[in-house]
Each structure stands twice: as structure tokens, then as C-alpha cells.
């Protein structure tokens, strides 16, 4: 797919040792959204498994994030017409670009600006002869003519395309007339599983995004559903703790204020991890995680904890179903009831689907292995 792969021009350390340099686009290891941290560290782990622990992996978000350069409108304009503009210098210092698509942003549902930023970085990399891999991600939907045009442009120039669910693979086929190079899964399954001694019963991840007016779900209904889940689980003798998965930030949709306010009101434990590593320890301590943030649920499943996602967008169900986890409730379903959610939560807690969880993790590891083997086929000649 795209142009032929060139050999890497290795960079050398002060000791004269060759070091492969990889840049992961649209990821931020310090993001308040722990799902974004998952993308960063998960893509890094893929690179390490493919090329060894000495590979240097850096992260680049739309803004500065972990980087000294931003990739937004101002930087794009400043870079135009310059042979050594900041963006060109940044990209040309790497042997390989892994474009994470910010997980689910390689689509037109978030508007033109974000998609154009992504396309511009891919355009510049191609002009500099720096190879690009679209790492495991949701691809599409592209509902507009311009979205489809940009989607084709980016994928036709990528050296490899890795989708993370069947719906995404179908989008690639629809736009390009062929399947992606790899049908993979979410990179959260590449992260190490923590050892924990602390035990908790039920963790409920409450989304600050959905708690206020939003374009995904009826926020008033969402508030009722969350309160009723807590009440029903408590009546069933369960101990419920509240988990924030988007932590304190300037963004109004972070989970912390909602979780703390609910915890104070209902006398519950509120858990606010400092980073994704601590969040994974928290979900590993639980018997069940019920979550409105997809990566809160994926973090749980990837460490072997049962999870019940409360979906609000297209990205949830295709990914979950693809790895063999059908226990998903869609908040947009008019027929959704708290009774159904709680009944399935109790089935999960009784271990009725633990064999599915074991099969899911094995399936995810197999799919990630396919991504790793595809990356290994890249020529690393100096």
C-alpha cells in the first residue's frame, strides 16, 4: 500500500551505536485523558516488540504535549514554503512515523480541521521520504465527499494500514478496494499486566463528557442511569467505587468533578489515578468495571478484569465484538433499562463469562502479534 519502503537511515548515539527513531503521531504520554496515554504507551510497546527495547519512541500530539513543536494551524502556516520549517525538521529527524489516528479521529465526524492536520503531517512525511504506518486504530466513518477524499489520500500514501476492528477494515475496503495490511486490535492489550494485592468489588467509571449536555446521548437520561445503577448494585450488596478515567484538566469534560461530587453525595469511594499505570492497577484490583469511557473498559479487559461498557459511539461495539466481547450496552438505545445492565453485571460477577474473557485476551494478543510481525518485515538497512 502506498510507495515502496525505503531503508532506514539510522541515527547514531554518542557511543556510535545505531538507534532507530520512531515518532508516534497524535499521542501524548502526559494527557489528562488516560485513553490518549494508552495510545502513546501501547504504540511504544508495539515498536519495542518489533525492533527491540533500544528503539527510541517519541510522541507528538496536535499541540506541544511531549514535543517542542505543535502541529496545529499556526505551525502549518509557518512551515509553508520553507525547506526547513519546524514541522519538516521534526518529521525528518525520525526513521519511521506511526500515526495513531488519536485512536478514533481518522474520520470526518470531528470536523475538517482535525482531519486536515492529520493529512498534512502524512503529506509532509511522504514528501520527506519518511515512511508512515497507520497504527491500529478506528478508521472512518467518512460521511462527506471531502472526508472520503482525505481518507483515500492518507491511506494511499501510507506504507502500512492497521485497523483495530472489522468495521474499520470494511471502510478501508470501501475506499481503496482492498483490505488493510493488518486487522489488529487496540494497543491497550500490548501493555504489561500489573500485579496487585488490593481488592475491590465494582468500579463505576462516570463520564464527565456525558454528564453535561453533549451530542452523544441525553445527559439527563445518563445521569438517571448512573444513579440507578449505583442504587441497584448497592441494594444487591455490592460495594461501588467511582473511577475517573479523564483526570483533572482544563477540559470541562474531565471525570473528576462528577466522580467526587457523586462520591460525596452517596458516600462512595472516588478513585482518581495520576496516570494510566495507576489506573491499570485500580481496574486490576476490581471484580468488575462498568465504564462509559471505552479505554476504562479496555484497560480492565486487558488486565483480566470483567467489564461492562456503556457505549455512546460507533467505536465501542465493533471493537468489542471483534475481539469476542458482546457484553456492551448502548446508551443511545431507547429500550435500554437499568435492570438489564445490572442483571448482566451480576452474571459477570458470578463468573459466567470468564471463559469468554480468557478467549478475548488470547484473540487480542494474536491480533497484536500480526501487527508486530508486519512491522518486523520493514527493512532496517542503514
From TrEMBL:
InterPro entries: Polysacch_pyruvyl_Trfase (IPR007345). It comes from the Bacteria. Residues 33-313 form the Polysaccharide pyruvyl transferase domain. This is Polysaccharide pyruvyl transferase WcaK-like protein. Pfam families: PS_pyruv_trans.
